[in-house]
Design brief:
alpha/beta; globular; 2 domains; D-Maltodextrin-Binding Protein, domain 2; 19% strand
Length: 334
């Protein structure tokens, strides 16, 4: 009897050790420096995603390994996603900034790859687009720009931080469609990120910039630029004096999501670690303090975000065709 009891105790101990060993094997944490890739120039939305996330992850101790930010511009996210798919599959220490600008690059065929070729991770915020001019611009209202465009669509130069057919250009195209002119006749000037587009406006090289509110937050407060219209349905709590396009009789709204993706080929444990970590990050007081005030707390994680990116890509394929752009010919699924 004693021998049987001894065997039973030993069996329980062995099983316990096995369970502990398996649980330890399933747990994953970073073991080397973390890289964030910004597909846009410094000062733009993607750069802000990377730098604010890196800062908060370090301050909160959610990640203890060093974090650094790389810049990889080109094709509104196309260069970055090509690099990730071709060279970084399975890299558990790499996160890439994303927004609907990447979706437009996919829908427009500017990249061979789509969300099916990477791991969509999380939406961490949302904000709205805006049409912006210098403080001393002769265009005092959105109506002034509309009048000039209707007289000659090529007479107003409009800068954006993304390639033709991508997000900032789509905001311009939606304006053209709303006021009855061909979006392809408008003078859109593309730059590699919102920071470059804003610099072009501040330098007096273009008349208008199609940007996001967070990208002009500092310049608005400093009185260097004016927002002729924000592309929200209602006025923003942060900038209640800024008129919407809708209230000025121009039916254009545009929501911009901010998020992150990772390479394909990751284990379930890696994806769960980063999903949980990013979710904790955006729930922290450090995040609330560090993020741009124009970022709204609209988040999606895990399967919900993955499905959202797939659905959005399908919607944008239709939208590009409606606006006169040629959508991608390649299938969007593997």
């Amino acid at each position: 009897m004693k021998r049987r009891m001894l065997y039973a105790v030993l069996l329980v101990a062995v099983v316990g050790l096995l369970i502990s060993s398996v649980q330890g094997a399933l747990a994953w944490e970073p073991t080397e420096p973390i890289e964030f890739i910004s597909p846009g120039s410094p000062g733009g939305g993607w750069d802000t995603i990377c730098r604010v996330s890196a800062r908060v992850l370090g301050e909160t101790g959610l990640v203890t390994e060093p974090i650094y930010v790389s810049t990889m511009t080109g094709g509104s996210g196309s260069v970055a996603i090509s690099h990730v798919v071709r060279r970084r599959e399975g890299d558990a220490h790499l996160l890439i900034a994303a927004s609907n600008s990447v979706t437009f690059s996919m829908a427009g065929g500017k990249t061979l790859y789509t969300y099916y070729d990477v791991t969509p991770l999380a939406q961490i915020a949302a904000e709205y687009g805006a049409y912006v001019v210098l403080a001393d611009s002769p265009y005092q209202t959105l109506g002034d720009v509309v009048e000039a465009l209707q007289a000659d669509p090529d007479s107003v130069t409009i800068a954006g931080g993304s390639a033709p057919g991508s997000m900032d250009h789509i905001k311009v195209a939606l304006l053209g469609k709303a006021i009855g002119i061909d979006p392809l006749d408008m003078a859109y000037v593309p730059y590699q990120g919102g920071g470059e587009a804003l610099a072009s406006l501040l330098g007096g090289h273009v008349d208008v910039a199609s940007l996001d509110v967070s990208e002009i937050e500092g310049q608005l407060k400093a009185g260097e630029v004016r927002a002729l219209a924000v592309l929200s349905e209602d006025r923003l709590a942060l900038f209640p004096d800024l008129p919407t396009a809708v209230e000025q009789g121009v039916d254009v709204t545009f929501v911009v999501w901010r998020g992150l993706y990772m390479p394909a080929g990751l284990s379930k444990e890696v994806v769960e670690f980063w999903t949980d970590t990013i979710e904790q990050m955006v729930a922290s007081p450090e995040w609330e303090e560090a993020k741009p005030k124009a970022w709204e707390p609209v988040t999606r994680f895990g399967d919900e975000f993955v499905q959202y990116t797939y659905d959005e890509l399908e919607r944008y394929l239709t939208l590009l065709e409606e606006l006169g752009f040629e959508p991608r010919k390649e299938p969007v699924m593997k």
